[in-house]
Specification:
Length: 699
């Protein structure tokens, strides 16, 4: 029995899965979470109404900016284990491990165990994949869902059963309800592969794909249709939409805006920085001063009063080249070299040279045999997954670095398959194709040296030289040992492991030192908010956020002051003004909302710390047209809300008519009654609680 069991266990796969478990779960309970989604999960546990709509607040005022499926899973985890950072991170970390296993399951039938093992290892070591699975951003669950859909698609071709095809597209539809159109990025590969690989007549294949598309659309639009059919006054406002519509959210903010970099017609550049175009013009007024109403008035940078991370350009570098999301969040400027730039290469691109040589090997293998095998079709599937994504991320105006994790499975699959093909050419010693494997390892090592050079402020020059030298040594020994197949085989395996060391290290820094739980970035130079941080002015330990820009708040269920290891949460995670909270609790008399604030970034810490509902009047960033003065007046008169906390700094995107109504109809509460001294004496930090005023509605 023991021998039989041993034969069924792939111990190398087990080792890879244990590595993935370590990378995904090590000190996960201390990692912190994206407060925006954690607060939503907390709210979703209060009622079925808030659960179904993925409401940001327990009163059901506004939803988060994503569909609910992944958040439903996080809410279930929080229900079973109690609300904590760990409980909301658990589904994502587990999905990451499952994805690594799925790569093995998908690759093995076509290219064998060795290719499957290498593909799993590559995905497990992909830096941005490691970074994102340690957050409660929903990408990890999306990737797992799409890989299950891929497995089902392969079954459809193998078994020639339409039910597997329908299941595959059903799962992509589920993916749409995890992160909307991002799930559709894999569809070119799904359609193309089934059409070229299925053995039925082409007319039958077309009919089957049409049926699968119907299933895809029905599942994709199921939740959106239900929500949009509900009267708007009977459900929460759809967060980050401009028309209170899920369909508009999918096509607009979570759709075309990702490509264009801005929401045309409403002035929003991207979430968190609305109306950036207008304010960029104010930044560029010739004297470097801040726009009117911003917390630093007309002070010039560089005098100790302007936020140090704005640098000497008065904040213009926030906009990137041309503004409107170009280069924002550390994604570089659009162009053919974007994926090879400092901003993105270290996240996902380490093995792209090897992928290129793998493609060359596939072309050569076809030209030699003139036979279009299932292996070729399988490789085309992964190329059709990867290439459209490379094009999109090269030209897109607005995305975060962690979106690149979508490329991880395709790169992993192509590297695993490519190594098998290149090794076959190498051992046969038939002309120039036998040089492809040594050349692929050398080119990959040189490219990794380039990535190290791009990050030379954080990486020793010794490592750059060492990486290049190792690549040369591997190339030389592979060329001179070609007649000693066994030794060359182990050398080629060592070469593949060698080119994985740096991607592994890049991801490991996030595991060991913490990262950003809101906008995750991998590597020793990872920053809290992309280029918004000035590295020279705000130095930090590897993997840490530079000081002086964002403030790390208390994680869910974590003792105050215990901050030795935390995912830096960016703008969402801020300390709650205890004096203000005590004041509000003292004057709370059962209103539906304890407080109304501009945005979710201000509301989240209050709701995370208490069980009260806080109204985010403008949604995530303050730019959503949720309220009108008339509607707000009606709510105030009905006793639903009494206190309003208004920020007069960085007020981009806010509806000034709402502020005017509050100023006109409410009485300002003296700051001495609610403002803590520590919140007003730190002018050099770019805090959201500066220039805030508290108002009370007296009726």
């Amino acid at each position: 029995m023991r021998m039989k069991l041993k034969g069924r266990i792939d111990f190398l796969l087990l080792g890879i899965l244990l590595l993935s478990i370590f990378l995904n779960f090590y000190r996960l309970k201390d990692a912190g979470s994206n407060t925006y989604y954690t607060v939503a999960v907390k709210s979703m546990l209060t009622s079925f109404h808030t659960f179904f709509y993925a409401s940001f607040d327990p009163a059901g005022f506004i939803t988060v900016d994503k569909p609910p499926v992944a958040l439903w899973i996080q809410a279930l985890s929080a229900y079973l284990f109690g609300l904590s950072d760990f409980s909301v991170l658990l589904p994502e970390a587990l999905a990451g491990v499952i994805s690594v296993w799925l790569m093995y399951v998908i690759i093995k039938p076509q290219f064998g165990r060795k290719a499957a093992l290498l593909s799993s290892l590559v995905l497990a070591c992909t830096p941005i994949f490691v970074a994102v699975v340690r957050t409660n951003n929903v990408d990890s669950i999306l990737i797992m869902t799409l890989l299950v859909a891929t497995w089902s698609l392969m079954k459809a071709v193998e078994k020639q059963k339409i039910r597997w095809l329908l299941l595959s597209f059903f799962l992509v539809g589920i993916g749409f309800n995890i992160k909307m159109l991002q799930a559709y990025m894999v569809l070119p590969s799904f359609y193309l592969f089934y059409f070229i690989a299925a053995k039925s007549k082409w007319t039958k294949r077309m009919v089957q794909l049409i049926a699968a598309t119907v299933v895809l659309l029905v599942v994709s639009l199921s939740w959106a249709t239900i929500v949009d059919m509900v009267p708007k006054d009977k459900r929460p406002y759809i967060g980050s939409s401009q028309t209170n519509s899920v369909v508009e959210l999918a096509l607009g903010y979570n759709g075309i805006s990702r490509l264009t970099g801005m929401d045309h017609g409403n002035g929003r550049a991207f979430k968190g920085m609305p109306n950036m175009e207008q304010n960029q013009k104010q930044f560029e007024n010739g004297n470097g001063s801040s726009p009117q109403g911003m917390p630093y008035g007309n002070r010039t940078p560089g005098n100790g009063e302007f936020p140090p991370s704005f640098g000497q350009d008065g904040g213009k570098h926030l906009m990137g080249n041309g503004g409107m999301g170009r280069g924002m969040f550390g994604t570089g400027n659009p162009g053919v070299t974007r994926l090879f730039s400092k901003e993105l290469a270290g996240q996902i691109s380490w093995l792209l040279p090897f992928v290129l040589f793998s493609v060359i090997g596939l072309i050569v293998s076809y030209r030699k045999t003139r036979e279009f095998t299932m292996q070729h079709k399988f490789a085309i599937f992964w190329l059709a997954w990867l290439i459209p994504m490379m094009i999109f991320f090269s030209i897109a105006g607005f995305f975060h670095q962690y979106y690149l994790s979508m490329m991880g499975p395709a790169i992993a699959g192509l590297v695993g398959m490519g190594w098998i093909i290149l090794w076959d050419f190498y051992k046969k010693k038939q002309g120039w194709p036998s040089w492809l494997l040594p050349a692929a390892i050398l080119a990959t090592a040189f490219f990794e040296t380039l990535i190290l050079f791009q990050n030379r402020e954080a990486v020793s020059e010794t490592w750059m030289a060492f990486t290049a030298i190792v690549g040369v040594i591997l190339f030389v020994f592979l060329t001179i040992m070609q007649n000693r197949e066994k030794a060359a085989y182990f050398l080629s395996v060592a070469g593949m492991l060698a080119v994985l060391i740096l991607p592994f290290y890049w991801g490991l820094t996030t595991v060991l030192h913490g990262g950003n739980s809101t906008i995750p970035v991998a590597g020793p130079t990872s920053q809290s908010f992309g280029p918004m941080m000035d590295e020279k002015r705000n130095s930090a330990q590897p993997g840490e956020a530079p000081a002086g820009m964002f403030h790390t708040g208390q994680s869910v269920g974590r003792p105050s002051g215990q901050t030795d290891f935390r995912q830096r949460g960016g703008m969402m995670e801020e300390e709650v003004n205890t004096k203000l909270l005590n004041y509000l609790e003292k004057h709370y008399h059962g209103e539906k909302f304890m407080l109304a604030v501009d945005s979710a970034t201000t509301a989240a810490p209050f709701m995370l710390k208490t069980n009260y509902a806080v109204m985010a009047m403008g949604g995530f960033s303050g730019s959503d047209p949720v309220l009108t003065p008339q509607k707000l007046e009606k709510m105030a008169k009905a006793g639903e809300v009494k206190y309003f906390l208004i920020s007069y700094g960085m007020g981009m995107g806010r509806d000034q008519k709402i502020n005017e109504w509050i100023e006109k109809n409410c009485k300002e509460v003296p700051s001495s009654e609610w403002e803590s001294a520590k919140n007003s004496d730190n002018n050099q930090h770019f805090r959201r609680d500066q220039n805030m005023k508290l108002y009370v509605y007296k009726g």
